[in-house]
Amino acid sequence: METIDFEVSTNTTVPQVTNHDMSVEESMLFGNLEASDFPPCKIKYFNPSVDFVAILASHEAKNFNSLTCKRQIGDISTQDEARRILAEIHITMKEVMESKFYSKMTDQLQNDPDIQNNIKRVLGSHSHVVMVIYALGGIEHSYHSQYQLAIALLLKHDFSNWIGEIEVYDPMFSPSDCMALEELGCKVLSVNEHCRREVTKPTLFFMPYAETTHTLNVMDANWCPSKINRMILLSVITSGNNESCNHFHAVTKYKSEFKISPLTEDHWIFTNFAWTFFNVEPELDMETLFPGQFSKEIRMKEGIKNSKLIAQCGDYIHSRNCGENFLSRAFKRNDEFEGYWDLEYRIPRRHGCLWQPPQIGWIKLNFSGKGDDKNSPAGFGGIFRNEFKDHMVVYSGNLGEADTTVASVESLRQGLRCLQYMPHVKRLVVEGNDLSVIRWVNKHGVEPPEKIREALLEIFDLLGKMVSVVYNVYKEANSLAIDLANKGAKLHNLRIWVAPS
Q: Does residue 276 sit in helix, strand or coil?
C-alpha cells in the first residue's frame, strides 16, 4: 500500500461550497512543495483485513489457468466474494427503490384494479404466492442480474402481504452467488428443473432473462386450467418463431398482459417487462389448442433439449475466463482497441481487490470521493499512473457539504479535467470504488439522481475524446485515491501535482 503526504491546512473548518465548478488555476498547482516530496514515497504496512485479501488475489492471479477447471480457489475467497456481492445487492436495492421505474411498477400493482383482481383470483384460498426465479444470470458476473434480483427482493419486501418465499435457480450461479442469495433469504435450488416446475400452489415465475424456450417450458409444464390459472408470469414479453406451436399464441384469448413501460433512462435494464395472468375455462382440454403433431411428449422433449443447448453456452467459470481474457490480454493489443467485454459485467475478483498497473500504452486513473460528516467536509482525490507505476498527476480537494455520491462524481470530473496536463494520453483505464457512480458512467444503471447529471454530462464528453474503460474496484485496490480524498477534505481548495516532463 502507498500513502501520499502533502501540505494541508490545520484549520478544518471550511465554508460551505455551493458552486462545484472547480476549474484548475495556476495557483492551485503544488508549486510550493519541495521536489523531494514527489513522487510520493512508497510506505508498506500490513493491514490483516485488506492485505490478506490482496495475497489471495495474487494467488488467484498465479493460478488463472486453473479457473478453466471446475474447482474452487478456496473457501476464504468464496466467502469473501459472497460478502462483497451481498454489499453490492444492498446498494443496488437502494438505487432501484429510488428509481422512477420501481415507483411506476409499485404504483401499477397498488392501483390497477385489473391487476389486483387477477392476483386475488390466483391466490384463491391461499395467502401468498411463492416466487420462483429462473434465468436470472450470475450476480457475481452481471450487474444487470443484480438489478433484476433487487426488483425481486424489493417486491417481496413491499408486497409481503401476498408474496412469500423466493426460490431461485440459474446454471450460471457461482458458489459465491449461492452464499449471497441464501444470506438474502432466497432458497437456491440444487436441481435444474429446466423451467418445468408444475404448479401445486399459487406461483409467481420471475424470469428476467429467459429465452423463449424457458418461458414456454413453464407454460407447457402447467398446460391445464387447474395449474396455469394458479400462476403469474413476470417476464419479458415473448413470442415463438412458430406461432402454430406457441403457447402464448394458443392462449391469447385466455391471458391478460400488463406491460410495465420503462422510462427512457431505464431502457438498458428493464425492457418489455409484463405481468401475465391466465384465466382458462376449467372444463377446457388445453391439448386441443395444439395441432396433433405437437403432442405433450414431443413438446417436453424439445423443451428440455433446447434448454440444455442454451445451458451449454457457458457457466460461471466460462464467465470468469471471459473477464480474465479481456483484462489480461485485450489491453495488450496495439491496434484499434475493441471493448468487447461489455462493462455491465463485473470484473473478476482478483482485479477488483488488487491494484495492478495498466497495460503498455494505457494510463490508469484511480479516483475516490468522501462525503462530509460531523468531523470534516467532503473531499475528493485521485492519481494517474502509467505501466511503470510512475505517478503522473495527483490531485485532491474539498467540497464543503456534499454526500459521497456527489464527491465521487466530482472526483472523476476533476480527474478528467487534469488530462489537460497529459495531452499525450489516448487510452485511459478508470477505476473507482463507488459502484453506483461507475454504473452510471457506464450507463448500466437506473436513472442517476438529478444532483449529479450535469457533472455526468461533462464526464461523458471528456471520456468520449479518447479510448476509455471504466470499472469498479474494491477499496483495497483504490486505497491511494481514498487517502487523497480524505486529505483533500482538509485543503482549502483544489491542489494538483504534475510530474516533471
A: strand
Q: pLDDT (tens digit, 9 = 90+) per residue, 344-383? A: 678 878 778 889 999 888 999 999 999 999 889 999 999 9
Spatial contact of 407 and 485, defined as CB atoms under 8 Å apart:
yes
482 three-state secondary structure: helix
Neighbours of 14 (CB within 10 A): 21
Cβ contact 435:88 at 8 Å:
yes
Whole-angstrom CA distances from 401 to 8, 15, 16, 404, 486 are 19, 9, 6, 10, 14
Let me know the angle formed at the C-alpha of 323 by 268 and 78, rounded to the nearest 5 degrees: 100
Residue 380 sits at φ, ψ, to 5 deg, of: -150, 160
Contact 406, 20 (CB under 8 A): yes
Is the model's pLDDT at 334 over the cut of 60? no
CA dihedral angle for residue 456, residue 459, residue 465, residue 467, rounded to 10 degrees? -100
Q: In what order do the strands lie in the sheet with 203-207?
A: 186-188, 163-169, 129-134, 203-207, 231-236, 273-278, 255-260
CA distance 79 to 84: 9
The model's pLDDT over 152-173, given as tens digits with 9 standing for 90+, comes to 999 999 999 999 999 999 988 9
Q: What is the pLDDT of residue 236?
A: 81
**In the structure grid, which three cell numbers stand for residue 149, read together?**
434480483
Question: Do 444 and 144 contact (CB within 8 A), yes or no?
Answer: yes
Q: Of 455 and 70, which is predicted with more confidence?
A: 455
Bridge partners of 276, per DSSP, are 233, 257
Written as nine digits, the cell of 26 is 495556476
Q: What pTM, to 2 d.p., does this model score?
A: 0.81
Nearest CA to 274 among 223, 222, 210?
A: 210
Residue 461 grid cell:
464528453
Q: Report the alpha-carbon distance of residue 382 to residue 481 in Å, rounded.
A: 5
Spatial distance between the Cα atoms of 101 and 253, rounded to a whole number of angstroms: 29
Percent of the chain with pLDDT over 70: 71
Is beta strand 255-260 parallel, antiparallel or unpaired with respect to 186-188? unpaired
Distance CA 310, CA 293 (A): 24
